[in-house]
Amino acid sequence: MAEKKSASAKEEKSPARDDWFRALEDDLQRTKEAVSHDLVERSGHRADINRELIGDLWQLWKKFHEIGVHYTLEPSYETWAIFTDNFPNGEWQWRQGFNPAAVPMLQLVDRTQDQGRSGDAMKCVYYDADGKSRLKVLFEYCEGEHYYKYSGWKRLWSQHTLYDASVERVDLAEVRKIFADVVKTWFESHLRHNRDLILKHMKRSYERVEAFNQ
Q1: In this structure, which long-range contacts are made by residues 60-67, counting pairs with CB atoms below 8 Å and at least 24 apart in sequence?
Q2: What is the model's pLDDT at position 3?
Q3: Fewer beta carbons under 10 A from the terminal one: N or C of the chain?
Q4: pLDDT tens, 103-136?
């Protein structure tokens, strides 16, 4: 019996087994360091992009505000800005503690009640595909309502993809061209009180990728 215990102890402490586990530990540590580096780099890219996008969307929000059109910006300026001068056109600075890398979606949303506009939105959304973080810019709007027998009335939504790229390849100049193209027509549609202008522009100029009800 003592001989069996001795043999078992020798087997548990065999050099081959120790070498195998040390090799595994080294592999796991390298994986941990690689993933950590990737996450830090990804977070840095996302923070830089979001700072720029928040600034851009804030400028657009102010243009609609000037003509008395009610829009909301998400994340709300209350979470990321401290105004040191008159609101909303005065100087502002980033709020301490705000982490732009932690924002998964930014959106400019039309809250106008007439012509079914409420909920029309331009969105910047992060998502993962094939192990990479990507940024997609969408325009979303409601096309009406439909009655479903078992769930009642639901709004019918359409989304158009305006831009889609991996985070490390995001071209802010291209994103800003798209913002300008969309907002020019969106703004005019409010001045003319004609929502069809922006809907026709979307259907004519950008791919429709998804329809859903809500």
Answers
A1: 60/108, 60/179, 60/183, 61/88, 61/108, 62/88, 62/89, 63/183, 63/187, 64/187, 64/190, 67/187, 67/190, 67/191
A2: 52
A3: N
A4: 999 999 999 988 888 889 999 999 999 888 999 9
**Cα dist from 86 to 56, 57, 82, 89, 91, whole Å:** 19, 19, 11, 6, 7
Nearest to 80 by CA among 62, 60, 53: 53
Q: Which residue type is seen at 185?
A: T
Separation between Cα atoms, residue 187 and residue 27, nearest integer Å:
56
Q: Which two tokens stand for residue 115?
A: 């012509």
Domains of the chain, residue spans: 48-213
Closest by CA to 199, choosing from 211, 212, 182, is: 182
In angstroms, the CA 140 to CA 118 distance is 11
- Strand 121-129 relative to strand 105-110, pairing: antiparallel
Task: State both tokens at 59.
Answer: 């400028």
Sign of CA dihedral 109, 111, 117, 119: positive
* Nearest-5° Cα angle at 8, 7 to 14: 90
In this predicted structure, the answer to whether residue 13 has a pLDDT above a threshold of 70 is no
Q: Which of 10-19, 149-158, 176-185 is the least confident region? A: 10-19
Closest C-alpha among 107, 110, 112, 100 to residue 57: 107
Q: Are 207 and 173 in contact (CB under 8 A)?
A: no
